[in-house]
Amino acid sequence: MAEPERPALSLTERRKAATQQEIALTAARLFSERGADGTTAEDIARTAGVSLRTFYRYFRTKEDAVAPLLADGSRQWIELLAATAPGTPLLPALLDSARGSLDPSPGRPAAALAWTRGLLRAMPDDPALRDVWHRTQHDAETALRPVLAGLADLPPDSLDIRLLAAAANAAMRVAVEAWAAGDTDPAGAAELAETAFRRLTGPLTGQLTEPD
């Protein structure tokens, strides 16, 4: 199912998007280096080269500043899944899209995974940062439903698709969190995601074994 084309952004919209991205990248780097407690909104604004007023024009809190970057990872995965060739079995589609979004590449350099690891390691000590992470995960699960519905040829609001989206998103989330907590290289995130999906093969594909 191909991703529909998006309308081209105006020059003003591109500038705003670039500013937002720069602030988000700066926040992620500072959180990774100093932790959330050691970083203020003023620090982020100053390092990003914008005024504090501009910072708050884009983000309500310092923790909200990393939401676009955390959402980007899920968005890349869902876009790859949406581009899966029709007729592809569900598990291979999930595995291929997960690896494509987690393996370092020109569109997702190893540096991006490095700050993702730093952010996830900072989260246990910052409830607001955890809230941002869980909010982006909830949004990703919702966005998965129509994509998975198209692959499975089921209604997007059906119980099966809701369960499927929840299980698939949880597999990715747990894999990334487990990778961030360890010391493996960036490729380890993709490997953990593949392991998580394979262990959920039954629930994800509907091939549940009847109890004896």
Task: Please tell me about this protein's structure.
Helices cover 70% and strands 0% of the residues. With 212 residues, the chain is mainly α. The chain has two domains: 11-62, Homeodomain-like (Arc Repressor Mutant, subunit A); 65-203, Tetracycline Repressor, domain 2 (Orthogonal Bundle). It is globular. The model is unreliable at 207-212 (pLDDT under 50).
How would you summarize the topology of this molecule?
Layout: H1 11-34, H2 41-48, H3 52-58, H4 67-82, H5 90-102, H6 110-122, H7 127-152, H8 159-181, H9 187-199, H10 201-205
Helix pairs in contact: 1-2, 1-6, 4-5, 4-7, 5-9, 6-8, 7-8, 8-9
Summarize the structure.
Helix content is 70%, strand content 0%.
Quaternary form:
single chain
- CATH class annotation of the largest domain: Mainly Alpha
Provide the gyration radius in Å: 18 Å
Helix proportion range: 55-70%
Distance between the termini: 38 Å
% residues in beta strands: under 5%
Name given to the CATH homologous superfamily of the largest domain: Tetracycline Repressor, domain 2
Number of strands: 0
Largest sheet: none
CATH architecture of the largest domain: Orthogonal Bundle
Return the string of H and E elements: HHHHHHHHHH
Low-confidence stretches: 207-212
Shape: globular
